[in-house]
Amino acid sequence: MTGWVAIAGLGPGSEALVTPEVTAALAKATDIIGYIPYVARVAERPGLTLHPTDNRVELERAQHALELASQGAKVVVVSSGDPGVFAMASAVFEALEERREFAATDIRVLPGITAMLAAAAAAGAPLGHDFCAINLSDNLKPWDLIEHRLRMADRGDFAMAFYNPRSKSRPAGFEKTLEVLREECGESRLITFARAVTTPDLTLRTVTLAEASPDMADMRTVVIVGNAATRRVGRYIYTPRSAL
Amino acid sequence: MTGWVAIAGLGPGSEALVTPEVTAALAKATDIIGYIPYVARVAERPGLTLHPTDNRVELERAQHALELASQGAKVVVVSSGDPGVFAMASAVFEALEERREFAATDIRVLPGITAMLAAAAAAGAPLGHDFCAINLSDNLKPWDLIEHRLRMADRGDFAMAFYNPRSKSRPAGFEKTLEVLREECGESRLITFARAVTTPDLTLRTVTLAEASPDMADMRTVVIVGNAATRRVGRYIYTPRSAL
Description:
Two copies of one chain form a homodimer.
Chain A: E1 4-9, H1 20-28, E2 31-35, H2 36-39, E3 49-53, H3 58-70, E4 74-79, H4 88-98, E5 107-110, H5 115-123, E6 124-125, E7 131-135, H6 143-155, E8 159-163, H7 173-185, E9 190-195, E10 203-208, E11 221-225, E12 231-233, E13 236-238
Parallel strand pairs in A: 1-4, 1-5, 2-3, 2-4, 6-13, 7-8
Antiparallel strand pairs in A: 8-11, 9-10, 9-11, 12-13
Helix pairs in contact in A: 3-4, 6-7
């Protein structure tokens, strides 16, 4: 029996956004590994072992997946959104680099709808021109680098999507982000807060940077900042295809 | 009978990446509008009218969708990938801005798997840290702005994904892109060419910028340039979660 690891994206929340490819992988799996709320989205069945784990143990989780696959298990590592965007795929390759005894493992990454694309779709089309995706968590990089990236992104007039904008352990980071953005982009730039996208709890709010406050974001929020041309049309927010 | 417009992403090619949400919208549609090869992916059935159109008529297509919906049609505008990423969603909102008589139209954007995420998944996880998406076509923006964005993206040490890297009408642009990248990122930076992702024609090739040549890309290729930390592990390419 040959084991494998599939790192699968469950999308941002709605089951209607789970791809058939991911559904098929889940149906073949013997083991599901991931953060508790994502594993909870997979239905239990005979022959399937669920391994839910807490946050911040990505590397241990990845090593566990490689170990199980080496014993013949068919392992699906579940991420929300897309596994390649601030999620488990990089952690699995980091583990593979550390544990060369697992070099021959059959690893596949199964893409999913990442949160920024679902948030953009809910708002209209704010990412319709060149854009950046930035993880605002400073767990794995220094704040100075985040600030530098915000400035470079604005100087290139990129729209920006932010993941992990704010958490209880980092209450000040998003306030500093808004200060940098006001300085670089000006007070009238549009910013969209999309919380719990594609779920019944969805809230969607677009304001100017002058009106934005840190408490508009939490860990379930994706934040999208427009470029200089981003504007409203009716209830929608969009960025034109042409540059200003 | 109330019409609507759904702008739907069919994903990069494989039917296994079409979301159930998009499949359900296609099943309810009376009219499908889009570029010929994308409309060709929708099965004909009684009660469904297909409106395939040639490239470069995005705005006319968008206006047609709004007109049909105003007459009660249930219109799905099909894009490949995600409709909000260099695709039809922004064109529909541009048309809505021009034609305010359609302001009340029920418009929804249905996200899809965009090409860069499928390409990244096929390669490993090269977009596993902060990244940018840049459309290299200079149809709708000047080359100077593209060059400026490439430089800002590198100075922020973003990984980069390029859409529309090269076409017959723009043979020189991608050569200039490679020159700018070598200057900014250095010769040893990894660059991945992913052609026809998720189809049986898939080709995947990773080289250094020193080894990269313009003919490695065409209009079916998504190009991903790593950040300074992007590296190989076995046959995979990935960008670690931590900054250098």
